[in-house]
Write a structure and sequence with these properties.
The protein is α+β, with helices and mostly antiparallel strands. It has one domain. Helix content is 29%, strand content 30%. The protein is built from 4 helices and 10 strands, in the order αββαββαββββαββ. The strands form 2 sheets. Strands 1-2-6-7-10-9-4 form a 7-stranded antiparallel beta sheet. A 3-stranded mixed beta sheet has the order 3-8-5. Helix 3 runs antiparallel to helix 4. The longest helix is centred in the N-terminal third of the chain and has 19 residues. It starts with a helix and ends with a strand.
Length: 185
């Protein structure tokens, strides 16, 4: 059990380093490849991308029954971190357009979405200056509530700005299995 825990901690640390390194403009991870693109919201103005990060040391999904059942993490707590110094953050009002699109999709598509594991573990949403993404760092598929993501976008966008000496930020799950980030697009 202890060796599995150590392997999982190492895998999280390896995957997290992909999102922390200097990146090309417009990307969220080293070697990013867009798998699919669509638009959501009442006005279909929020771009949604499923991306893969092939340069990441991928977390391997579990096998059997666990791989087919998504672990629901709706309502799970996360810890907010603001990125310093100030300057260059997204316009929080533009981030709120993403919030509205997520709420619209929750009402019209369904309250939850599922996100896979391994290299295809990231969903990115963009509207003008605002970009947010959800990253599954777990070894199993996760299910998350669109309204929860919407709330986090507003919290981070409005609380991690120049007055707080910040330029965006993230909210990392208390158990480290996932995070939501908000930044300039």
């Amino acid at each position: 059990m202890q060796s599995k825990l150590l392997a999982l901690v190492f895998a999280f640390a390896s995957a997290a380093s992909v999102w922390a390194s200097p990146l090309e403009a417009g990307t969220i991870c080293k070697g990013q490849v867009t798998v699919s693109t669509s638009y959501i919201g009442k006005d279909h103005n929020v771009k949604v991308e499923q991306v893969t990060c092939p340069d990441a040391q991928s977390l391997q999904p579990v096998t059997g029954l666990e791989a087919r059942q998504a672990s629901n993490v709706c309502g799970a707590t996360c810890n907010t971190n603001c990125f310093t110094p100030s300057g260059g953050g997204p316009n929080p009002n533009e981030c709120h357009v993403i919030t509205d699109a997520l709420k619209f999709e929750s009402e019209n598509t369904g309250p939850t979405f599922t996100i896979g594991t391994g290299a295809i573990n990231t969903i990115v949403m963009t509207y003008l200056s605002c970009k947010t993404f959800f990253v599954n760092q777990d070894v199993s598929t996760l299910s998350y509530c669109r309204n929860d993501w919407a709330s986090l976008v507003d919290i981070v966008a409005f609380d991690c700005q120049a007055p707080q000496n910040a330029h965006g930020g993230n909210c990392v799950a208390a158990d480290g299995r996932w995070f939501v980030q908000v930044q300039h697009s």
